[in-house]
Sequence to fold (171 residues):
Amino acid sequence: MFRSPDSPADADAGNIARTSVRGAAWMLGSTAVQGAVGVTASVILARLLGPKVYGSYFAAAALIEIAGVATSWGFGIVLVQQTGADQEADADWIGTALSLSLVIGASYIALMWLASGVATHWVSATVAALLPWLAIRQVVQMAASCYAGPLQRRLRFRLLATSSAVSTAAC
Fold:
């Protein structure tokens, strides 16, 4: 809903500015932590797996990322727009988005299982075998976006940044 600049709700614009600056700092810190965890994990994986298996792993991960573009249906963005007014309606929006994410995600994993059988014609058997397992990470991220959207709307950047960093470390 549009409010005029002189409405009482906009009287505390300084608070919104401070919250936004703090939120940006939290998200910047989260991105730095995620990058550091990613580099560290890559170095450890390269050391443990050796060049051939490590290359196969990242080839499979690249294929999953490319195929995963189709799974990012934007539920988090819709939830940023649609949540916030009514807790009961918010629960309905989040539940619907999460259900759709899980159905699409299950279909995506099944498709990757099927693709892994066909992929052996173009990529190594190791890469093909990794595809369905790496698809699970995409589905977890898609489901997580259903909870990230309302956090963004409510300017809960500390919680959003912390959960993003933890999920990166876990996956």
The two ends are 38 Å apart (CA to CA).
